[in-house]
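Input/output pair, single chain:
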Amino acid sequence: MSTERRGLLIVYTGNGKGKTTAALGLVLRAVGQGLRCCVIQFLKSARGRWGETVVAEKLGIEWHQMGRGFVFRPEAQTQDAALAREAWALAQERILSGEIDLIVLDEFSYLFEFGWLNAAEVARWLSEQRPKQLHVVVTGRNMPEALVEMADLVTEMVLVKHPYDAGIGAQAGIEF
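Output:
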């Protein structure tokens, strides 16, 4: 077994809660080990002051919220698609920069589900362009097979029970 550092492609997918939470746990671990991290959230709005963004500021973690939120209206699809492609361009820039050791592409699978990006093209780009040492973490439900197949680690979150089903709303510090 080699002890040489090799960048991993890590996928957190599935219908269960915890994909972003797991990715952010890796960010905390990486920062603790001196790695430089970047998080790009493809759907969350920059207007929100989420718990994770507040602590990221305190820890000096590079953080980008590139969407308008989880509101999908057919009349806004063109704007949402443009924002998603802009976020992917930023992700590509940060991946190639040589300035980070780990990047999280949060809510990334939705871009493929909505047809805003082509999964095979993204997988090919990552395979050919991603620096050998860079860790890439992608999250989202229904991750395309092209990314799952090339990943080094895939974890599928399975929904067993959720408080929403019992009428319990989102909790500060748990969902946001």
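The helical segments are 19-32, 51-59, 77-96, 109-113, 119-129, 145-150. The chain has a mean pLDDT of 92.
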